[in-house]
Every structure is written in C-alpha cells, then in structure tokens.
Design brief:
The chain has 331 residues and is an alpha/beta fold. The protein has 9 helices and 14 strands. It starts with a strand and ends in a 6-residue tail after the last strand. This is Zinc-binding dehydrogenase.
C-alpha cells in the first residue's frame, strides 16, 4: 500500500512517502481502505518527538483521524460491516500505524459508521476536533441555559465547541482576534464575541453578558488565558481546557481558585472515558442527521504531500481542518 511514515523525529521533511506492507485485520478489527486522513497538532508533536519512545519498535505511520470504507473484517466482527462507510479515530494512539496510508486495521469500536450525509473529508475531522469539543462542552452536564465562554472560537476545536454549546441551548461568548474570525464565531452560534488581544478581555466578557459571570469555559490556552478567565468566571464554575501550548507549565493562583471553588478539567480524546466516546459518536450522528454541524476545511493535500500538510498545521494560521486526501475509497 502507499503510505507516509517517519523513522526519526524532526521537521516535516522526515516524513517519507512510498510503499509499505498492507495490514491484515486481527481479532476484533476491521480493515479500512482510507479516503481521507485528518492532520492535527498532536500528530505534528509526535513527529517532533513528544513521545521519545514512539520509534523504539520501528517506523510510525502518523495520524489518528480518518475516514473510508471497511474492506475486510477480523475474527469476531460481523461480515455485515464489509462495505460500510466509516470514520476512524485513535488510529495512531498506543500503536505505530495510523491513517496516513491507503489502509488501516483498527479495533472496530474505533471505526463508527459515517453519517449518511457526511463525506470522507468531514469524517476525518470528527476524531480530535469534534470529539474534543464535545467532551469540553458536555463533561460536566447539560450546558443548556448556562453561559459558556469559548476562547479561540475560530480554531479547529473552538469552532465545534461553539456549535455544541449553542445547539444545546447555552448562551455562548467567544473570543477572536479579528473581524473575520469574529464573524465565524457568530455564524457558529456565538451570541457575543470579544477580542482576546485586548489586555483586559475578561472585562469585555462581563460587558457582553451585562455583568453576569460565565458558568463554564472551553479554553484553548490555559496558562496564557487563566488570569482573564478568572476575571469573568463565576464561583463554582468549570474550566475545560485542551491545550496550553504558549505556557506549558503554568503557575496557578491556587488560593484564589480554591476560594472560587473552581473545577479545572483537562481534556484529551485518547483518554476520555469510553462512555464519553460512545456518547460523542451518537451525538455526532444525530447532529449530522439534523443538519446541525457545520465544518470548515482549510486545505487538502494529496498523500505524497503529507509533509506540506504538517507544515500547514505548524504554521498556526490555518482556520479549519487540514486534510490529506488518499482516494482509496469512493463516496
């Protein structure tokens, strides 16, 4: 099969393109002929060496997310799944071979049915961006009727977090740094948008809400944003955060946060409870069927240009999902 892999850590140019042995499905697995692979920051971080032992057992085919068609099944899996359109997630979590290839063999639970009205590129966005946003919004209960602040609302995860929260009946306040991104947030369902480039944007949030503090925060930059979040979150509120790349070892004002009875929830798709994953999968299917999820695609690259897709992610200025088109399955 055609595939992309790396045998050493480094810049995008460590990615190689060529032929690798196609996998066979083991017990409980399906073999998916992939049509699209999603690229996420966690994929580029792994390529750079965020998991130093990743290459100990040999080369790695990157990427956790993708979509395609089941072509074969392993022992214990119903043959009815052959021919099913699916999306895959966690393809390269705790294992070497991900979705940047024509085929992936994966636990059938990690290959849910692709909603009928979704194409393969859309399915390749579900794993990390959509499921992360779902967990941040719903992990602490129904957000209906609450005020939910989404920082970086035009980002890959933030864009979906706005939709999940707004569709559930929350009043969403988003942050964005320019007029185009602000309009994107409003189109996704944000009732208010403030500019996080303002030094006192926490006060701007309070102005937008008429002085009422927010109940929950979905946060893209925990360390960098914490001081302003504390200016606008209520006592007993929840901060659900999925990144802190600008300040990877933030210092917490412990007593201030303690006397506000705050909950800090750190979210990563790989280690979400299985029940939360199943709920996210069900909610994605329902939202797509109802036409309540919109998607944005920044760029798409052919498999042989996977290095360019990684560079696009690392540039940090893309809005929407970055996709690698594989073309191994037909819609």
């Amino acid at each position: 099969m055609k595939a992309v892999w790396f045998e050493r850590f480094g810049e995008p140019d460590v990615l190689e393109f060529g032929e690798r042995p196609a996998p066979t499905p083991g017990k409980g697995e399906v073999l998916v002929r992939l049509a699209a692979s999603g690229v996420n920051p966690s994929d580029t971080k792994k390529r750079r060496g965020s998991f130093p032992n990743l290459l100990d057992n040999g080369y790695v085919i990157p990427h956790s997310d993708g979509a395609g068609v089941v072509e074969a099944v392993g022992e214990g899996v119903s043959s009815d799944r052959v021919g099913e359109r699916v999306w895959v997630y966690q393809a390269q979590h705790g294992r070497r071979f991900g979705s940047a290839a024509e085929y992936v063999a994966i636990d059938e639970a990690r290959a849910p049915a692709l909603p009928e009205n979704a194409d393969f590129r859309t399915g390749a966005c579900y794993g990390i961006p959509v499921m992360t946003a779902h967990r941040c919004v719903f992990a602490d209960g129904d957000p209906g009727g609450l005020k939910v602040l989404v920082t970086g609302g035009a980002g890959r995860v933030g864009y979906y977090a706005i939709q999940w929260a707004a569709n559930a009946g929350a009043e969403v306040i988003a942050t964005a740094s320019n007029a185009e991104d602000a309009e994107t947030c409003r189109a996704a369902g944000a009732a208010h948008v403030v500019n996080h480039r303002d030094d006192d944007w926490g006060s701007r949030v309070l102005e937008a809400t008429g002085g009422e503090r927010v109940d929950r925060v979905v946060d893209v930059e925990f360390g960098a944003n914490l001081s302003q979040v504390l200016e606008c979150i209520r006592t007993g509120g929840v901060i659900a955060t999925y990144s802190s790349s600008r300040d990877m070892q933030p210092t917490l004002p412990f007593y201030r946060m303690m006397f506000m009875d705050l909950t800090v929830r750190m979210v990563i798709v790989y280690d979400m409870p299985e029940a939360a994953k199943k709920q996210a999968i069900a909610d994605i299917a329902a939202a797509e069927a109802a036409g309540r999820l919109s998607h944005r695609f920044a760029e798409a690259y052919p498999l042989e240009r996977c290095a360019d897709a990684h560079a696009a992610i690392e540039a940090g200025n893309r809005r929407g999902c970055v996709i690698v088109d594989i073309g191994g399955a037909e819609d």
